[in-house]
Amino acid sequence: MKPATAAQKLGIYLPAAPEEFQNADVTREQLNELLATPPEWLVQLRLTGPHPRQIVSSKLGVSTSGLARGGVVDPLTTAEIQELLAAPPEWLVRERATQAAVREEQKRIRARNAEREELREREAK
Prior knowledge:
The protein has helices spanning 3-10, 19-22, 28-36, 40-48, 53-60, 64-69, 78-86, 90-124. It is an all-alpha fold.
């Protein structure tokens, strides 16, 4: 697989990975080996970053679109993420509230759909 795909599966920011990883295709066996026994560079990259957008958004509790609306375009390190969480700017507070509302709405829809399915099953009997 391409290095970008492997980096995504490993949850790392590709430009921060070593050159040999960035420039070589990764086999499924190599990927499994990296997942099973990660080398020190991978451990450190996962711990300190910089992290890809998907990981940053997850750690901040917002969507990737929320990051863009907040003006976060560059990858962030773990320290930068912790700083934002310690003293959240207004955009982060707003986006976290939006994300919480979206999750509640999804929960409500799942419950409604489960009720409808249960009703259909009872009526079918």
